[in-house]
Amino acid sequence: MPENRLTRYELELMNVLWTIGEGTVQDVCDNLTRELAYTTVMTTLNLLATRKNVLSRTKDGRAYVYKPIVSRDEVSRSILSDLKSVLFGNRLPTMVLNLMAEDEADQKTADVLRDALKKLEETQ
C-alpha cells in the first residue's frame, strides 16, 4: 500500500474497479452508487494512477482503461492498521468490540468469530 492514504471518495472509485476488474472513466461513472461529474472521476482516476500508484492505466483508442494494482485486502489491512494504531491505541480487543457494537451480529457471525479465535489459539 502506498504511503498516501486513500480518501473515502477515492475508495468509492477503487471499489468500482475492484468489483468490475478494470474499466474506463465511463465504466466507473456508470457503476457508482451516486452521480459524479465525468471530469471529476477522470481527474481522480488519473491521480490514483500517476501519483498514488494504486491503478495502472493503458490507452485503448481514445480512452484509458484503469485496473487496480493493489488489492482490496491490502488497502483494508492498511486502513485497519491505522485505525487500530491511532484510534484504539493498538488495542485489538477494543477495536473488535467497537466494530461489533456497530453491527447487529447474528449466530453466523458469532460462529465465524469463534472459529477465527479457535484458529488463533491453535497457532499460539
How would you portray this structure in words?
With 124 residues, this protein is mainly α. The protein has two domains: 8-68, Orthogonal Bundle (Arc Repressor Mutant, subunit A); 92-124, no CATH class. It is 62% helix and 10% strand. It has six helices and two strands. The protein has helices at 8-20, 25-31, 38-50, 72-87, 92-102, 107-123, and strands at 55-60, 63-68. The protein has a two-stranded antiparallel sheet with strand order 1-2. Helix 2 (25-31) packs across helix 3 (38-50). The two termini are 28 Å apart.
Radius of gyration: 18 Å
Return the string of H and E elements.
HHHEEHHH
| CATH level-3 fold name of the largest domain | Arc Repressor Mutant, subunit A
CATH homologous superfamily label of the largest domain: Winged helix-like DNA-binding domain superfamily/Winged helix DNA-binding domain
Spans of at least 5 consecutive residues with low confidence: none
Ends distance: 28 Å
Spatial order of the strands forming the largest sheet: 1-2
Q: Could you state the oligomeric state of the chains shown?
A: single chain
Q: What's the rounded overall pLDDT mean?
A: 92
Tell me, what is the CATH class of the largest domain?
A: Mainly Alpha
